[in-house]
Write a sequence for this structure.
């Protein structure tokens, strides 16, 4: 894909955002992501906003439908209709989440060259696993997604910890303020253990 095509897709995404057509915005940014080139901060934010709004609408719908389904006691047919509709929204939500997770794993995280981008993508990954966990039912809710939600957030914390602690002058006070203990090693370089 040429630079002109990429710029055109980014422009389409901006137009879609202004007209609140987030599905179109997400598709444009998905195409930009699939070029395999690292995204700029602006492109990264456009991608995030697009999918956040696409998923946000489905999450909101799912909560409303779930509430209606729980309150519907009058007839079995009404409950069945509510359940079927909820399942349809869940399916859409799962497909979108898997799409984003695929983009993150295949294109975005491997190409992230700076820590800020890596943290952004790992947080995004954790968010989409959380969205999957919110609509999971039964055994899937209890096991499949529970740990996956926390792993990216832990990694984000570690990256942020090492990026922002001024360890060159006096590492001990800086590290103690971050709930981290220091274990001195023989080389006099502190070994950090986090309580994350």
């Amino acid at each position: 894909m040429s630079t002109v095509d990429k710029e055109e897709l980014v422009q389409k995404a901006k137009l879609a955002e202004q007209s609140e057509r987030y599905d179109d915005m997400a598709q444009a940014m998905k195409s930009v992501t699939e070029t395999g080139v690292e995204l700029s901060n602006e492109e990264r934010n456009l991608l995030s906003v697009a999918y956040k709004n696409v998923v946000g609408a489905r999450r909101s719908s799912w909560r409303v439908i779930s509430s209606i389904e729980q309150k519907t006691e009058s007839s079995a047919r009404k409950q069945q209709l509510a359940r079927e509709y909820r399942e349809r929204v869940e399916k859409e939500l799962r497909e979108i989440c898997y799409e984003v997770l695929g983009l993150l794993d295949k294109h975005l995280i491997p190409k992230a060259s700076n820590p800020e981008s890596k943290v952004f993508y790992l947080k995004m990954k954790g968010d989409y696993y959380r969205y999957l966990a919110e609509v999971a039912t039964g055994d899937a809710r209890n096991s499949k997604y529970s740990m996956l939600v926390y792993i990216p957030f832990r990694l984000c914390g570690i990256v942020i910890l090492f990026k922002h602690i001024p360890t060159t002058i006096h590492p001990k006070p800086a590290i103690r303020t971050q709930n981290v203990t220091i274990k001195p090693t023989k080389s006099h370089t502190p070994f950090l253990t986090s309580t994350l």
In short: The chain is about 75% helix and 5% strand. The first strand starts at residue 180 and ends at 183. The CA atoms of residues 86 and 188 lie 58 Å apart.
